[in-house]
Structure formats: C-alpha cells, structure tokens
C-alpha cells in the first residue's frame, strides 16, 4: 500500500463536504442575469433602430426616384411625340436627320451599294427586307417617307427603330429632354434648407447610451477602477427644444434647453479586497469604520455591512444649455448636416435618484449613504454629430442624427482637495422636427 | 416559462434546458441543488468566507452563461464543480498570485515516510484547516489531486506548470499533512491524558 494512500482517502471525503451557501448569493446572480438581459435588449434596440432607419431612408429615396423617373418618362414621351408630329407635318427631318444618317450607315453595312440621295431614302417596313434586300432588288413592297406622311409618325418610324435599335427616337432626343428633366427636377425639388428663412425651431427627442470614466489623484486609481468595474450602462434619454439662426450660406448657430436623464446601474459585493483598497486610498478616513466596505455610485458613498451586496439603478438629472454650430449642405433632396458644439450642464437634483435609494429605505441598516463625494452643480459638455434633414409634409423637416456626446462634470471626493474628473461619454441618437420660421 | 411549483416534477434534462433558456426557476433549482456543495469547494480554494462567497457568485454566473456547453456529457455536478474550480484558478489568478514553483529535488518529501497511519477521527473543518495551512501551491495541487480527482496532466495544464512540479507539490503537501496530522494526534492524545 502506498504510504500516502490513507492521506488521500482521508482528505478525499472533503469532496462530499457541504457548507451553507451565503444568503444573498442567489439574488446577486439573479440581478446579474437581469442586467445582462437588459444589456442584450439594448443592443437589439439600437440594431433594430439603425436597420429601420436605413430601410426607411432607402425606401424614401427609392420612392422619390421612381416618382422622378415617372415624371421624366412622361416628359420624354410627350417631347418625342411633339417632335415627331412636327417632323411629320412639316416634312423637315431636322432632328431626324440623325435617324436617316444612321439608317444609311446601317443600310450601307447590309447592302452592296450606297444610297446617294437623301430624298430617295427608302423605308423598309420589314426589317428582314431592310437587312437582306439589295438596292437593285424589287421594291414593290417598299414605301417612301412621302407615302407615309399621313400616318402617325411613331408608327411610321417603328421599323427604322428596329433596324437601328441603338438610336431609338427617344434616345435621339434625350440630350434635350434630359436638360428639361433637370430643370423640371429643380422646380419640383423641395429644398430642405430654405434660402429665405433665417430662423428655425426644433423640438427634439434623444436616446443616449452612456459610459463613464473617472480620473483623479494617482493614489485613487485602484479605488476608482474598483468603483467603475461594477457599473453597467443604461439607456438614457432626453427631451428639449433648440432654436437656431442661419448666419452664413451653410452655417447656423443653435441653442436651447434640454432635459437629460443619464442612467447607470451598479452592483457591488463585499469582499475583503475592497477593505484594503479603501484603507489604502485614504488613510485619513480613520474617523470612519475602516473595517467596513463602501460602494460609491455616482455621487454617494454607501457603507456596506459585511456579507451584504447591493445593486440597483441610478439616474442623473441634467438640464443642458448647448451652443451648437452646424454646417449643412444639400445632397439630393436631403440636407446633410454636420454639427458640433459645447454647452453647460446644470445638475438639477445634485443627487442621484434610483433604486438604491428605495433599497435603502426598505432595507434600513444594510448600508448608509455618506455624502463624501459631491457633484458640482455645473458641468461642461460637448458634442459632434452627423445627420440628415429630410422634408416631410412640406416645409418642416425631420432631422435624424447620430453622434457622440461627451460631458465633463467635476466631482469632489472626501474633501474639496481631492478632486475627481468625471467624464460621461454617450452615443446619441437624436430625432427632431425642424420648423423654419418666416 | 416553467412554473416553479411544478419544477420538482421535471427531470434534470428538462431543467437544464430551461436554465439554458434563462428560466430563473430552473436556474434557481440548479443553484439550490449544488450551492452548498460548491460553497465547500470555494472555501477550500479561497482565503476566507468573503472571498468564497464572491467566487461562488461569479462561478455560478459562469455556470449559467456556459450551461449550453455542458451537452449532457457526464454528471451535471461534475461539470459545475469543474467550472467552480476553473473559476477559482482563473478569476482569482491563484497560480500567479500565490504560487512559487517548487523544484522536486528541493523538497524533503520523505520526511513523513515513517509516520504510521492516523487512528483518530477528524471533522471536515479540521481537515479543511489542515489543508489551508499548506503553502499555496501545495495546497492547490493537493486539493485538485486528492480531493477533486484531477490527474497530474490536468493539474499541470490548469496551473500552467510542469507535471514534475505538480507531483513534487503533491508529495510535499502529503508530507506536510502527515506531519500536521501527527502533531494533531499527539496534541489530542495529550489533552485526553490531562483530562483524565
């Protein structure tokens, strides 16, 4: 027997050992599952919204394109008929000389001899005859243009069209028709950027997907990373109104008032590692219980009792006053807009509101908020967007833009001497109706 | 959605399928069935109860994330245990944080060879405490080999060490445990005599 075999057997029974699983562990797992599901739904939401937008724009252009082609086609047919009728009535083959010349070329290619006189141009009602019949052949079934004078022109020239398919009557007159078609389009097109109106008003809805970055004193790096690790982005939204004024051909300046809610979800479980981090970060916090654990969510610190976990959503409420400069240009029937700007953000409530507050009230004693981190009332934000303005129902314009929004909102941690730079980054989708004022 | 009142009537296969589809009742059934056993595993691989709880939570999240990979190969308990152990080794990076590579020649693993097999009965807590007194590398290798039944090849792969290092640490752990058991028996025997 191996001298160690009994040792292995003795300890192998540990494999069947059971220990009471801690309370709250299942709730944590469940919360994590829900968070992941919500994050997954967000991606579906953005993906679907993006696809719908692309499909809508494509459909819109297709519809407009079909309509324009139809108009152009009508114009073309009318023009051709007019021309041909004129030709037939006046018997002056001005434009149709091209047809005749081309017919000559084709005939020359297929016949052994040349046609010398334009007036003696023969018309072959049957294409097979045109191709195969020599000039010297019997022309009993061949008619001349003069004989066809009284017949509708289009019908009379149809065989010619078949002989020379590359030079259909429509094709021949196309250069002029195209010019007219362009002129027609210019008059039909609704310019989304009117040249007369200088002012516009624009109600807006926006959805943003936020993430946050915290930077601070070097000693706080670990601490900040620990805090950030638990944060999950939430869909945030806003509503507002912008007013703008055009000050140059392609430029306008806008400002407005936007109410914006930024959300994040955070969760944290007590662990011994966090105690060390906390103590190491700020040893001056001896006045607080250094054996306790703290979670900082946005602007509030929560002390956790050992063995507990918290999670929840928090939302920040801002009023923003942006100043935006926009460059726009017409591309086809829409206006392509690029804009960037900056503005100030006013923190409305100076406190986070969300599930954690509720949790605190219903689970009194589990954790205590300690307002060691305070958010400054004012922040600074900037944005860059790319979007389109498309005319709907006449003059008001539907605006859809995608872009990036950044926000810098300084916070103070522990004391005013330990500042933390807080940056919020958002992917933003903005939908608005731009109404130009007379 | 599976009614949690009727979940006990379902067989394990149906419950696994439900858990893969993120049905919370099925996931909870799996959690409740294995949580206590896995907590004991976590306690063996971590420094304290807090860390064990964190590990248990993280590992069960991974269990539910990767349950579709189970594929009914072997027992579910064995698979969950493997996820827990792998999580312990990966998530906490035990191998890199704690381990010092021990060369087989440097270990006097013959030290305990003359020890006669123990006679006393030990509680699970005592045995767990003994394992935790081992050096980290030896502790983990012993846990993996003697308790969780992994081979040296598997251990070497999991800890990114050589087979020889795994063996040397196992022998070292056994020798140290023999010493500690011997001391414990002598201590217990002395206490009994004093008591009399």
Characteristic terms for this protein:
heterodimer, A: 438 residues, alpha+beta, Porin, eight-stranded antiparallel beta barrel, three-stranded antiparallel sheet, 35% helix, 37% strand, B: 196 residues, mainly alpha, Rna Polymerase Sigma Factor, Chain: A, Arc Repressor Mutant, subunit A, 2 domains, 9 helices
Could you please describe the fold and organization of this structure?
Helices cover 35% and strands 37% of the residues of chain A. Chain A is α+β, with helices and mostly antiparallel strands and 438 residues long. Chain A has 2 domains: 64-188, no CATH class; 192-437, Porin, CATH 2.40.160.20. In chain A, the strands form 3 sheets. Chain A has an 8-stranded antiparallel barrel. Chain A has a 3-stranded antiparallel β-sheet with strand order 7-8-12. In chain A, strands 1-2 form a two-stranded antiparallel sheet. In chain A, helix 2 crosses helix 6 (169-188). The longest helix of chain A has 66 residues, at 25-90. Chain B is mainly α and 196 residues long. Chain B folds into 2 domains: 1-92, Orthogonal Bundle (Rna Polymerase Sigma Factor, Chain: A); 97-196, Winged helix-like DNA-binding domain superfamily/Winged helix DNA-binding domain (Arc Repressor Mutant, subunit A). Chain B is built from 9 helices and no strands. Chain B has helices at 12-20, 24-45, 49-65, 76-91, 94-98, 124-132, 136-147, 152-159, 163-195. In chain B, helix 7 (136-147) packs across helix 9 (163-195) and helix 8 (152-159) crosses helix 9. Chain B is globular, with a radius of gyration of 20 Å. The model of chain B is unreliable at 94-117 (pLDDT under 50). Classes of the chains: A alpha+beta (438), B mainly alpha (196). The interface between A and B is large, with 33 and 45 residues.
């Amino acid at each position: 027997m191996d001298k160690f075999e009994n040792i292995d057997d003795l300890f192998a029974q540990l494999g069947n050992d059971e220990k009471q699983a801690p309370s709250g562990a299942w709730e944590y797992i469940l919360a994590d599952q829900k968070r992941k599901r919500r994050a997954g739904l967000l991606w579906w939401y953005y993906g679907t919204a993006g696809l719908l937008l692309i499909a809508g724009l494509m459909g819109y252009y297709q519809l407009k394109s079909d309509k324009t082609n139809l108009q152009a086609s009508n114009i073309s047919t009318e023009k051709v008929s007019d021309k041909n009728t004129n030709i037939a009535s006046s018997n002056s083959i001005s434009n149709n000389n091209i047809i005749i010349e081309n017919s000559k070329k084709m005939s020359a290619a297929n016949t052994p001899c040349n046609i010398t006189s334009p007036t003696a141009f023969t018309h072959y009602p049957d294409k097979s005859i045109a191709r195969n019949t020599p000039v010297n052949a019997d022309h009993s079934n061949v008619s001349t243009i003069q004989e066809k004078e009284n017949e509708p022109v289009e019908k009379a020239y149809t065989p010619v069209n078949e002989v020379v398919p590359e030079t259909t009557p429509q094709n021949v007159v196309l250069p002029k028709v195209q010019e007219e078609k362009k002129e027609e389009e210019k008059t039909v097109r609704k310019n989304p950027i009117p040249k007369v109106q200088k002012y516009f008003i624009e109600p807006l809805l926006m959805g943003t997907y936020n993430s946050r970055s915290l930077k601070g004193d070097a000693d706080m790096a670990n601490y900040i990373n620990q805090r950030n690790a638990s944060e999950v982005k939430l869909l945030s939204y806003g509503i507002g109104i912008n007013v703008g004024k055009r000050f140059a051909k392609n430029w306008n300046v806008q400002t407005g008032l936007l109410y914006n809610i930024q959300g994040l979800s955070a969760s944290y479980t007590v662990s011994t590692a966090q105690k060390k981090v906390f103590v190491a970060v700020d040893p001056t916090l001896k006045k607080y219980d250094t054996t306790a654990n703290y979670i900082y969510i946005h602007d509030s610190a929560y002390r956790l009792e050992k063995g507990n976990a918290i999670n929840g959503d928090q939302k920040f409420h801002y009023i923003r006053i942006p100043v935006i400069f926009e460059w726009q240009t017409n591309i086809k029937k829409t206006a392509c807009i690029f804009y960037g700007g900056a503005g100030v953000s006013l923190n409305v409530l100076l406190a986070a509101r969300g599930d954690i507050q509720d949790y605190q009230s219903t689970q009194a004693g589990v954790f205590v908020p300690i307002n060691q981190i305070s958010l400054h009332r004012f922040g600074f934000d900037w944005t860059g967007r790319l979007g389109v303005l498309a005319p709907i129902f006449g003059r008001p314009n539907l605006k859809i833009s995608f872009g990036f929004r950044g926000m810098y909102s300084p916070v103070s941690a522990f004391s005013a001497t330990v500042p933390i730079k807080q940056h919020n980054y958002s992917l933003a989708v903005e939908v608005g109706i731009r109404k130009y004022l007379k | 959605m599976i009614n949690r009142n009727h979940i006990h009537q379902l067989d394990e296969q149906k419950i696994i399928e439900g858990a893969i589809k993120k049905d919370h009742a099925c996931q909870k059934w799996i959690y409740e069935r294995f949580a206590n056993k896995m907590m004991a595993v976590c306690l063996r691989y971590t420094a304290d109860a807090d860390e064990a709880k964190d590990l248990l939570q993280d590992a069960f999240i991974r269990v539910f994330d990767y349950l579709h990979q189970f594929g009914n190969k072997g027992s579910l308990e064995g698979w969950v245990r493997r996820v827990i152990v792998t999580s312990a080794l990966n998530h906490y990076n035990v191998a890199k944080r704690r381990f010092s590579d021990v060369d087989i020649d440097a270990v006097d693993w013959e030290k305990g060879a003359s020890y006669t097999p123990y006679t006393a009965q030990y509680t699970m807590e005592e045995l767990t405490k003994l394992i935790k007194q081992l050096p980290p590398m030896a502790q983990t290798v012993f846990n993996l080999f003697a308790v969780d039944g992994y081979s040296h090849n598997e251990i070497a792969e999991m800890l990114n060490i050589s087979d020889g290092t795994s063996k040397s640490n196992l022998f070292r752990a056994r020798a140290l445990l023999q010493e500690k058991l011997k001391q414990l028996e002598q201590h217990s025997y002395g206490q009994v005599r004093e008591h009399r």
